[in-house]
Amino acid sequence: MMLNPDKVRLIDLYDPEASISLDAFGIAEVDAEKKIDERASMAIEILEALCRRFVSPNNPSNTAYARIIQRAVNAELESQRTAGTTPSMRGVLVRLDRWGTGDLRDVVNVQDEVRGKWIDMAQTLSEHLDTQSKDTLGRLLFAEPGIGRSMTVEAGSMTIFVALNLQPTEEGTEPTSTSTIHDVISGLMTDYIRSLLYRLPDEEPKVLVFDEWHVIKRTKRAEALVNWLRRMGRSKRAQVRQLSQAAVDFDTNSLSAVWAGKCQTKDSAIASCTMLEIEPNEVNIGTLMRLGAGEFLFRDQKGRIARVFVDIWDKWLLDRFNTQPDAKARLLEELRQQQPNLLSSAVAA
Amino acid sequence: MGVDRGRRRQGALPGLHRRRRLPGAAQRGVPVFYDLQNIGDDAHQAPTEIVFGDPGSGKTVSRGLKCALEDGYKGITQFIWDPKETSCP
What are the start and end residues of every segment in region (Disordered) (chain B) (predicted)? Predict the structure, then answer.
């Protein structure tokens, strides 16, 4: 698509060849000059989220579990200073496993009377985290730092986060082991977007695109992030673009521009009228229900509305936006024939 | 039909209406410069654009990602959260 491959970063959670390590120690912000080191806080936050049922206030031993996690993370960072090892979440896991077998050589100040209980708790955490590290997505949190491309924010880059089947905990339901992992990964991505805003100069234009918003908004952290962006984004020169299938998927507040496509039902058309700030009368509803492919009612930031047609003059390019399964399969086959190593080389770049 | 007289008095472009009917008959299109990056709304909040409609067609909504591609050509820093691989064949 004539984009500079060096500027495109693909994070595909389900494609091991196109993914990256989400190891907390590897992706946390470290800036010696500014005396910033978020490795410990990020690792502890992620481990506590993964071990939510052990550190939740409902668990009478929550403080002790949280303390073990903190000590494991601190010991991992300390070993970098003393032994020159690279700290990692995998290293924390190995350490907890060792403590769980009674090997406490690198732990000080554990009183004899609580030693047995302490070992049992370390073993419980180790077993729990070991299971999660084998999950399809959980493995990314424990992958060796540096695998795949860097998460460092770079000006001018396009980061595409393919979150196929990411299913965070639904509101009002009990978190499962898998949904907890998905919650953590969603949280990492929202934190990444925030860091993108703060790491880059304010004058650098930034765009945050959320496709299939009706799916993403189930992630409460992402929804909170977009609300925050609407308040804070202006000063950071950040623009938010949300795409979804129906007007009802969106919050009507703080919208600068609206593109309303064809509606299949009257209710959907009425919701679109509300979003466009036009009367939901028969004419407007009929117009919305009769729009053709590529036609939109567009409302700009001044409230002006027009019926517009969005076209892509290049058919080759237009086909790249066709998401029908057979069209996508044809496209992949075409790409493979043109450049057999294209997909893998783009990832390795 | 549905002429917004207030806007016409202020010299607004024809065919652009708010809280009125949309023009039913074909009218001449008027070029309007549109660049969301350089606008601010009345509340001085972040520019927010939404695109929706035509569920299941497989094109209309995804065509909203055309803007993301154009921004990519311009070298604008972007983050695209894509739950169904629309943006990366």
Answer: 1-21
At A24, which amino acid appears?
A
Q: What letter does residue B20 receive in the DSSP assignment? A: S
Q: At what angle do helices A39-50 and A89-100 cross, to 10 degrees?
A: 60
Give the best residue of B78, B84, B87 to mutate against chain A (max A CB count within 10 A): B78
Q: What is the pLDDT of residues A230-262, one digit of tens each?
A: 777 778 888 899 988 888 888 877 788 899 999
Q: What is the pLDDT of residue A29?
A: 79
Q: Which tokens is A227 given?
A: 């609300």
Intervals of chain A under pLDDT 70? 1, 16-18, 146-150, 323, 339-349
Question: pTM for the complete prediction?
Answer: 0.77
Stated as kind and residue range, the H or E segment containing A161 is strand A158-162
CA distance A112 to chain B (A): 50
User: Pairing between strand A295-299 and A305-309?
Assistant: antiparallel
Q: What is the pLDDT of residue A46?
A: 93
Query: What is the SS3 assignment for A88?
Result: coil
Contact A243 B65 (CB under 8 A): yes
Q: Which residue of chain A comes nearest to B55, CA vs CA?
A: A245
> Hey, are the CB atoms on B77 and A206 less than 8 Å from each other?
yes
For residue B9, the model assigns a pLDDT of 40
Instruction: Report CA-CA distances (Å) from A26 to A44, A72, A137, B52.
Output: 14, 16, 17, 37
Q: How far is CA A35 from CA A29, A31, A38, A151, A348, in A?
A: 10, 6, 10, 20, 32
Q: A160–B80: do the CB atoms touch at under 8 Å?
A: yes
Burial A281-302 (b: 16+ CB within 10 A, else e): eeebbebbeebeebbbbbbbbb
| DSSP per position, B22-80 | PP-S----------GGG---TT----EEEEE--TTSSSTTGGGGHHHHHHHHHT-EEEE
Q: Is B68 in contact with A277 (Cβ distance < 8 A)?
A: no
Per domain, the residue ranges of chain A are 1-18+161-244, 21-147
Contact A137, A19 (CB under 8 A): no
